[in-house]
């Protein structure tokens, strides 16, 4: 089976933070299921610029690099298109295996469930 992005949204409160192409950053939620079936589950990705990341590190200390897309400038539509392609490249024999593969890209709502 192949993954299919069925929708995406900016997580509440992140709209303003993602608007700045040079200093932006925030979480984007992708709803992903299988290409020929109903249902989906969420996978969250932090989309940010190097400057945003540097500022966070200065404030909060080191950041682990999982589920992060760093881009400059931050063009949200381009970042979403890139991530959609990456999600939809993933194949597996069953949903559990596919979810594990997808969780390498985004934080899966059922990871370690």
Mind explaining what this structure looks like?
This protein is of the alpha+beta class. The chain has one domain (3-108). Helix content is 28%, strand content 27%. Strands 1, 2, 3, 4 and 5 form a 5-stranded mixed sheet that branches. It is elongated. It starts with a strand and ends in a 5-residue tail after the last strand.
Please name the defining characteristics of this protein:
five-stranded mixed sheet, alpha+beta, 113 residues, 27% strand, single chain, elongated, 3 helices
The gist of it:
By secondary structure, the chain is of the alpha+beta class.
Q: Mean pLDDT across all residues, rounded?
A: 93
Number of helices: 3
**Rounded Rg:** 14 Å
Helix content: 25-40%
Structural class: alpha+beta
What distance separates the N and C termini? 22 Å
Largest sheet: 5 strands, mixed
Indicate the proportion of strand residues.
25-35%
